[in-house]
């Protein structure tokens, strides 16, 4: 087990106070540049889930701990590579991929006479990626297509992302106008029915967890420069317990995946556990540090805002209700 894995579980979470940050100023351009540098160095060549899920998720935790915008794009790339592998395909060497699957607001992509049409929301890496795996309705169900984003019919609209959180993730609406896909990846319904779908969601949770730890790194650095009172220490202790528990649970589920015995219930539970820990961080951190770092330290405030936006990829009570249903069905 690598040092990165050892520091993501149990008492290893005590290793706080040494913030790992992408140097400021941060922008969508600098984030894409950082992700491409990691791609070129081989740092995104992660083991597939089921081969060494623990190492894979540990690497994603570490990325999230450094910078959530970088981690968002890196996670999308490694997820796309895993999806292609599951379909028996290989990515184009040197290309940076993403997975665009949102059906938000009643909009989405569709396949009409073999061409991709429509608009998709929340496309991270909208202007900086090379290729994307796009979920599109072909009339018989949702299918997955690979799209070359240099096609003239692909048009990002950067003005559609107005959030401060994850502002450097290059997320935007993307419109498709008669875009011929490079390939169709699997039959309709394959994307969500495949075994790797829920496991991929565990990789997203690993990034959330890293983001939560990154914020706690900053909190520990702030408190280390002054005398913390008992209320601050109590909040910090509560957050340490929440994050350590989430890390231990994620490690447990990673081992289940590697042994081939992880169920969708296990993976949904791990996402819910990590989401709860991340939300505790979002709620308690402002009460620990007060207004000064939130108003005078842009990187501190940015990391907290990034976490708050990114963790909403969990569908809150809808995902929890689905989890609760599986609990009752198992009785």
From TrEMBL:
Record has Acetylation as a keyword: no
Taxonomic source organism: Actinokineospora diospyrosa
Keywords: FAD, Flavoprotein
UniProt record similarity statement: Belongs to the acyl-CoA dehydrogenase family.
Name used for this protein in its record: Acyl-CoA dehydrogenase
Domain Acyl-CoA dehydrogenase/oxidase C-terminal: 189-310
Record's keyword annotation contains Kinase: no
Gene3D superfamilies (alphabetical): Butyryl-CoA Dehydrogenase, subunit A, domain 2 (2.40.110.10), Butyryl-CoA Dehydrogenase, subunit A, domain 3 (1.20.140.10)
């Amino acid at each position: 087990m690598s040092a990165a894995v050892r520091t993501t579980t149990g008492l290893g979470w005590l290793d706080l106070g040494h913030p790992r940050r992408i140097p400021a100023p941060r922008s969508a351009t600098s984030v894409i540049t950082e992700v491409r540098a990691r791609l070129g160095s081989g740092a995104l060549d992660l083991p597939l889930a089921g081969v060494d899920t623990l190492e894979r998720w540990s690497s994603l935790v570490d990325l999230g701990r450094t910078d959530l915008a970088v981690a968002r794009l890196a996670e999308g790339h490694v997820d796309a590579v895993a999806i292609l592998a599951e379909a028996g395909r290989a990515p184009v060497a040197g290309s940076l991929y993403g997975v665009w699957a949102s059906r938000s607001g009643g909009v989405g992509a569709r396949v009409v006479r073999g061409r991709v049409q429509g608009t998709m929301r929340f496309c991270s890496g909208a202007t900086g990626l090379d290729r994307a795996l796009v979920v599109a309705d072909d009339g018989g169900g949702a299918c997955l297509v690979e799209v070359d984003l240099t096609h003239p019919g692909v048009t990002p609209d950067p003005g559609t992302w107005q959030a401060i959180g994850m502002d450097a993730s290059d997320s935007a609406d993307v419109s498709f106008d008669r875009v011929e896909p490079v390939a169709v990846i699997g039959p309709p319904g394959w994307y969500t029915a495949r075994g790797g779908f829920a496991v991929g969601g565990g990789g997203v949770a690993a990034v959330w967890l890293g983001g939560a730890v990154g914020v706690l790194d900053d909190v520990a650095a702030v408190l280390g420069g002054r005398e913390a009172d008992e209320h601050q220490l109590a909040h910090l202790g509560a957050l340490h317990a929440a994050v350590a528990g989430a890390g231990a649970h994620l490690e447990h589920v990673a081992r289940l995946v590697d042994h081939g015995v992880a169920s969708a219930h296990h993976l949904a539970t791990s996402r819910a556990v990590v989401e709860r820990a991340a939300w505790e961080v979002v709620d308690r951190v402002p009460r620990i540090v007060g207004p000064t770092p939130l108003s005078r330290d842009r990187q501190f405030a940015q990391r907290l805002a990034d976490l708050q936006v990114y963790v909403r990829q969990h569908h809150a009570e809808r995902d929890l209700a689905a989890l609760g249903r599986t609990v009752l069905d198992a009785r």
